[in-house]
C-alpha cells in the first residue's frame, strides 16, 4: 500500500507494520562513522617519516647503541598528539544527530501509541501535536490549525500552516494546532538524514601551517633516500672501503653516523610544536566557553578575510519581542482595545508573535469570546469576537496590515515601520459579527493601532562586527528571511546595507554569483543549497571564508566554509560539523579566537625558522661530508641533546608566548628566506671546522666535541636572533638554556654519556674563529631578511616576525 492510497484514519495494521519492518522500510538510520579508528591510526602511525625514524631506531637497538635513540621520543609524541587531534574531530562528527525526539506518536490499528523514532515505518500515520518534532518526511492527512516551525531547515522564522496534502519534513517542529500525516520517506531518504549525511563527510580544516610543513616534509622525503646512500658510502670509505669496514666491524659506526645525518634532517619537532600550540590555544579558548572541535581552526579564523553570517540565532537571538504601539486616533479608539490585545497574548493557542503581547497588555477581558478564527500563516491574520455589552464588544482582527486591509490604506505607515527592521501588525475593530465557518474578515473594519515587534539583537553583535571591520574582514549576511527585514537588522548592527538582495534572483554560475556577492552585503530568501553555493563561490574567488549559523539549513554551508562557527543553542547537525562552537552563544568571543590564531601563526613562524634552519644545515652537512668523504662529526645522542637545548625546549616556550601580529600570507616563504641561507652558513662552518681539525690531526672524540661546541654556540645565537627583542620571559628561557649547556659540558656523568673530551687549545681556537665568522654572517642574513619581510608584507615596523 502506498502513502497516497491510505484514506482511512486507522493507520496501518500490525501485520502491515511487520511486513514493512521485514522489507527494511523503517526509519532506522545508521550514521556511518566519519572516519574509522583504524584509518586514523594508519594515517598517523604509518607515515613515511615514522617509518624512517622507526627503521633508524631499530637499527640502533640491533647495534646495541640505544643511547643514540633518544629521537624516538619525539616521533612517539607526534603520533600520539596527531591521533588525539583526529579522534576529537571524529567524535564531534559522530555525534551528528538531527533528531532530538526519542519517541514518535503513531496511529496503528486505530489506536495511538508511542514508538521509537527508528521504528516508524513507511506509510505510518503520524499523530502530530504542539511540541512534537516530525520524525520522518510525511504528507498531511488531517489538520486542525497545524503550524510548523521549519526555520532549522529553511531559515524562515515564520510559522508555516499545513493543510491536507502539504508535505512536512523531518526535523521541523509543531508549534501550534495538531494533525495527522502519512510517512512518505524514511531512514536515509528523509530530508534531515540526507542533510546530515552530506554534512558528515570527513575533512580537516585548511591550515597554512600544516600544509606548509607538509610541503617541507614531502621535499625531505624525496631527498632522504639518495642522501642516506651518499652518506653511508662516504662513511664506509672513511673506514677504508666496504671490504675493510665489514671485516673490522667499523660499518656499525658508519651506520650510526648515517642515522645521525638522516634524523637531523627531519623536522619532527616542528610538527610537535605546531600541534602543541594548537592544543594550548584550544584549551585557553575552552575556558572562555569556546569549543574548538578541530585544533587547526584556532589558526584558521585568524586567516579569515570574509565572514558569512546567518541572521536568526547569530545576529539575533531568534526570539520576537514587543516594541511599541502606534494608535491611529488615541482619543477616538474603541473601548477595550488594549484588553483585546491582552486576550491575544494570553490565549492558549497564541503564536510566538501574539504571546509577546502578554507582558505589556495584562488586563485580559473578563468575558469569554463568542467566536474566534485562529491565526493562519496563509491568511496572516486571526480574529476574535465578544458579545454586545462586554467591555471589549465587537470583532477584533490582528494581522498583517496588507492582509487585513488589502486596499493598502496602511501601506505608507506600515512600510515606514518595516523599513526600520520592525515586524508590523495591525489591530482592527468592527461592530459586525464574525463568521467562523467562512473564515472571512468582518465588514466595516477600522484600524485601531499598529503594533511593532522586533527580533532581539544579540548585545555583542555590533561590537564584534566593528572589530572585524577594523581588521579588514568583510561581512556577508545570508538568511532565509525577507531581504528587507534582514537589511534593516544589518543596519542596526552597524553594516552599511541599504537594501537586501532576494536570493531567488541569484545566478547559478559560480563566476556570476561571485560578482553579485561582491556587489551586495545582505541576501534574503536564501535556501540551504544556495548558502553552500555562496560559500563555494566566495572560496573560488580567493577568500578565506568563515560561516556562522545555528539552524540545520546552515549545516551544509558551515561544513563547506574554511571555518564553520555554530552556536550552542543551534541544531545538533550544525554544531557537529562546525569547527568552532560558541558554548554561551556570545559573538564577543570571536576576537579572542582571532587573537589566539594570530599568536599561533606568528609564534610558529618564529620557531619554524629554528627547525627549518636545522633541516637545511643537516641536509647540507650530509651532502658535504658525503661528497668530500669525511667522517660525520656527530653522534646521534650529541645532536639530540644539543638540538633539544638550542631548538626544541626554547621553541616550546616561544610557541606559546603572546603575539598579536596580524596574519599575512606567505608563512613558508618568509621562514625559508631566513632558514636556507642561515642553514647553509651553519653547514659550511661545521664543514670548514671539521676539515681544518682533520688536517690538524685532531682525534675523533675531540673533533666531535669541538663540532658539538661550535653547533651549540651558533645554535644559541640563532635562537637569540629569532627571539629579539630579548625581554621578559625570553631572557629567562635563553638563560636557562645556557645554564643547561654548561651542565652538559661540565658534569662528568653527562660528558661521559655524550662522549665529550676536554678540547685542546687548537680545537678551542678553531671553534672560536669559525663561530665568530658564522655569527657575523648570520647577522648580515637577518638584516636583509627583515628588509625582505617588510618589503613583501605590511607588518608593523616596530615588530619583528
From TrEMBL:
Stated name of the protein: ATPase
Residue ranges crossing the lipid bilayer per the database entry: 43-63, 219-239, 259-283, 616-635, 641-660, 672-692, 704-722, 729-749, 761-781
Source organism (scientific name): Agromyces aureus
Membrane topology label: Multi-pass membrane protein
MF GO annotations: ATP binding; ATP hydrolysis activity
One Pfam family, short name: Hydrolase
Gene3D superfamilies reported for this sequence: Calcium-transporting ATPase, cytoplasmic domain N, Calcium-transporting ATPase, cytoplasmic transduction domain A, Calcium-transporting ATPase, transmembrane domain, HAD superfamily/HAD-like
Places the protein is found: Cell membrane
